[in-house]
Fold each of these.
Amino acid sequence: MRAESLKNAVVIAIFLLSFKEGAAADLTRGHSIAVRWCSECHMVAPGQGHGSDAVPTFAEIKASDRLDEAQLTAFLSAPEHSRMPNLSLTRAEIADLVAYIKAQRKVGRNSGD
Ligand code: HEC
């Protein structure tokens, strides 16, 4: 029946779309993970207003260029020998966070943007 096969096509399309979304690093997800898990210590976005002075902001981490994507991924997988807690993030969460950090614009601390 035509309607039935159309329905199947829609189901398959939705499945493929959600699969693609799940695979790619996602800035919006990175932002919400950062707000939930990182903002207690880090300034994760301009004008956040809190966070700790002893902890680099995400903009500073991006601006330093000391850590590339691979090094950030390795650090977040196992932040040993660091004052940072290990947050047991999944690989997908780490990919989203790395994309989010790398998308930070070069703004200073408390610039308010
Ligand atoms: C309990 C506080 C705390 C939380 C929560 C936290 N961090 Fe950190 N983070 C730190 C501190 C402190 C440092 C500085 C580490 C050092 O100097 O040894 C740091 C450093 C970093 C660095 C830089 C490492 C380097 O070598 O320069 C990255 C990247 C980072 N954090 C990412 C994150 C991300 C992403 C999250 C959320 C998933 C997060 N942090 C959550 C405290 C925290």
Amino acid sequence: MKKCPYCAEEISKSAVFCKHCESRLEEAAVDGSRWEYIIATPRMKGWVNKGVSDEVVEKINDLGSEGWELISSSPVSTSKGGTDFLTLFFKRKIN
Ligand SMILES: [Zn+2]
């Protein structure tokens, strides 16, 4: 862990953006780390309170085994208030 130079919150040592204030961290850019990102949208079972479908868990594990780290997720709601899809954000370090 290290401190964000802009807001002084604790952040991951390898963070490129501060999750608290969203500042870009120049130190991280200087150390040569580069990242690629993808977004996956596995289908939910229906209403979000029925739980997460196997497809969601499989998707996360499949991508994890390929080096993709889940960094964020967001439900995509229908007009009726249910959750049809999860939007999953993954990142992977480029060597
Ligand atoms: Zn910050």
